Amino acid sequence: MIAARRLARASCSAAVVLLGLIAVAASARAPDDAATAWTSGPLDVVVALPGPADPAAVAALVGRTIPYYEEGVGTPDAAAEPLGALKVAGARAEDDGRTLILATDPHPRPARYVLPLDGLGRLGKVVYTLDGVEASWSAGAEPGPEPTWKDGLPDLDVRGFGRLATSPRRARRAADLRKPGRLRLDAQVVLDAGKVEGTIGSPAEIVECLFGDGENTIEKTESGGSRVKFTIADASQPVFLSLTVATGPDVPAGPIRIDLDGAAPAGSKPPRFLLPWVSSALATSKPEPLAIPDLAGGDPAKGEEAFFSKEALCSQCHVVRGKGGQVGPDLTTIGRKGVEHLYRSIAVPTESITPDFVTYTVSLKDGRVAAGVVRAEGPDAIRVVDAEAKSATFPRAEIEEFRPGTTSIMPVGLVPVLGEARLRDIVAYLMKTSGK
């Protein structure tokens, strides 16, 4: 199970129901003639349609891209600059064409993802985010090692599976929760910075809970539910929550609550829930103080020679004017961002990771581990490219864990390796290729 643990900051309030801010929650209140989308994992998107989709239109989605934008409200207008885009590598329909399952590149960061559905009638574009909870249900009182299914949930209210009338998939999930089993809910909870204490209360029996510092003691309530007290010494980063509750025909369905001790400070916001496999490092990283040397006076011709040399190895990962490797971003126009940005990208590569080139650690069921930039390779496989530009392909079905990295695949310490003169020449070359 992927457990992205403490990665960003935001705020919370006392005595609040765990209400999701995810687009899925908004979609649950959408009219019956609207499409809705959510992620059920880092490499796929589920789309609930108001009616059957034409098979040809579904097939035409393959090869299209899903641009993503800075977080905010509504659909970005045509003038907005996307942070990046995911490729749709596979598309299939279920439920007589009313549910689409899209295989995509990894979702790299919290953002607004805009899925184009204009080829499917009048549906236009659907916005979804990476807010929410990962729900894993296992049938039976003694579940096996693999869950029966995994899916996204707007919040910790299990009734969310029954709110979306247009989704046969969610209706099946809601029906399963009335059977004996175990439902595990995993998320990153974004709270106010500082020490936080409180209680988690559930109308259903809590079987296991991991939240905050130290062990969590589960207490039964008079109504048959459970509560867990927790303490978080420092909530400046999201806190990983893993909660398992019992399901069955007689188990009350309702929201799981978090009540924080003390009064909520002015300006507090409700807790935010990020899916457990999301890396929020890109959204929260801030430039560190850095002295920028004088990089004027370089020779672009020498810089080009250095860029494509075996010593610098820049071209092993980067393309300039169509020449080079594709492990990292195309640097043809990077000079437009200025000399300071160029230098910082070399000196502190983790500070300016391009979202489309976030690295991941992929653990497989047979024990193998691969790390690098991940791309979708058709509907059933992924390709991992490591720091040496070596590529390996793995079946999606064999992935045990998919964990985002917090550092750039580009090695640190390149400034002293390149030397002042060669660095100045490379900067001159990249400034020239960008037209600066």
From TrEMBL:
Keywords: Heme, Iron, Metal-binding, Signal. PROSITE patterns: CYTC (PS51007). It comes from the Bacteria. Residues 1-30 form the signal peptide. Residues 298-434 form the Cytochrome c domain. This is C-type cytochrome.
